[in-house]
């Protein structure tokens, strides 16, 4: 197994989109550049969604305009439709993401369509992105449970994974949106998914609602997963999953990975300082245990 682990930093998108306090584009770009300087190579800059529905993601194009590009840095955004893809192409992002779920009930609440309809919408977008030289990530939400439909069978996750890969996605992020999964459930999901896709094309996206995120990361590591999503200062949650708390904090993930002897190339203390700056701006206390302990 590789001794390198990669973190996809989602705090500026999946994190800030669920925070009540909007942050201007200049500040978001400054945070992006600081995270890149700390050694993170894959960072979501935001999403090209309607500011009417997600005002926190307004001016994502201006955020990207303020990014200091460097070799090896992947500037990533989430898109919902052709308008979003056009904006991503105009902003010269490196990777786009599309999002669906393993639950029809959740996709209806989240994007007002079924799983099949969401994939039909994404098919031409993924093809166009591939033709333009962009890499494409596919998000699958509610891999363990749906707040509307209850427990999700691993076979449903495998089915959506296979369909996204067939459409041309380069990598798949498996999201425990409600944060209810435990290692045994993660293991069962991976039993269903891993025969379909190599581990290097998979990521785990763990929320920490029940305090199980790090345990689930460890289970993923045992199965060969080496890419994990996290958010600086544990930002975010899910507006369509009542009670779901924030993402796994990047600070806590880094501490675990380093302790397991895995190399990330990321400066933990620098990420702690950035997280503290963000929390000060948002007038909130960081949920990161590591950041609290280190007091950077």
Automatic annotation (TrEMBL):
Pfam families: HMGL-like. Gene3D superfamilies: Aldolase class I. Residues 5-272 form the Pyruvate carboxyltransferase domain. Its EC number is 4.1.3.4. One of its GO terms (molecular function) is hydroxymethylglutaryl-CoA lyase activity. GO terms for biological process: ketone body biosynthetic process; L-leucine catabolic process. The keyword Disulfide bond does not apply. InterPro entries: Aldolase_TIM (IPR013785), HMGL (IPR043594), PYR_CT (IPR000891). Keywords: Lyase, Metal-binding. Belongs to the HMG-CoA lyase family. NCBIfam families: PRK05692.1 (NF004283). This is Hydroxymethylglutaryl-CoA lyase. It comes from Halovibrio salipaludis.
């Amino acid at each position: 197994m590789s001794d390198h682990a990669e973190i996809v930093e989602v705090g500026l998108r999946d994190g800030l989109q669920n925070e009540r306090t909007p942050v201007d584009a200049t500040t978001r770009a400054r945070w992006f550049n600081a995270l890149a300087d700390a050694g993170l190579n894959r960072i979501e800059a935001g999403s090209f969604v309607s500011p009417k529905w997600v005002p926190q993601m307004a001016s994502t194009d201006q955020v990207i305009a303020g990014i200091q590009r460097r070799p090896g840095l992947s500037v990533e955004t989430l898109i919902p439709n052709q308008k979003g893809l056009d904006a991503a192409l105009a902003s010269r992002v490196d990777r786009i993401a599309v999002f669906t779920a393993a639950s029809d009930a959740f996709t209806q609440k989240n994007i007002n369509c079924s799983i099949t309809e969401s994939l039909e919408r994404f098919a031409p977008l993924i093809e166009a992105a591939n033709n333009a030289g962009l890499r494409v990530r596919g998000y699958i939400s509610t891999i363990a449970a749906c707040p509307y439909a209850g427990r999700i069978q691993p076979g449903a996750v495998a089915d959506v994974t296979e369909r996204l890969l067939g459409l041309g996605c380069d990598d798949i992020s498996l999201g425990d949106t409600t944060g209810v999964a435990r290692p045994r459930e993660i293991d069962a999901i991976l039993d269903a998914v891993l025969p379909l896709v190599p581990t290097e094309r998979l990521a785990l996206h763990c929320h920490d609602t029940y305090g199980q995120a790090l345990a689930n990361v460890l289970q993923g590591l045992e199965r060969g997963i080496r890419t994990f999503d996290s958010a600086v200062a544990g930002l975010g949650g899910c507006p369509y999953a009542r009670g779901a708390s924030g993402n796994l904090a990047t600070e806590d993930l880094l501490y675990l990975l380093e302790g397991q002897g895995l190399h990330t190339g990321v400066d933990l203390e620098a990420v702690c300082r950035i997280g503290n700056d963000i929390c000060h701006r948002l007038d909130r206390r960081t949920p990161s245990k590591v950041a609290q302990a280190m007091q950077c």
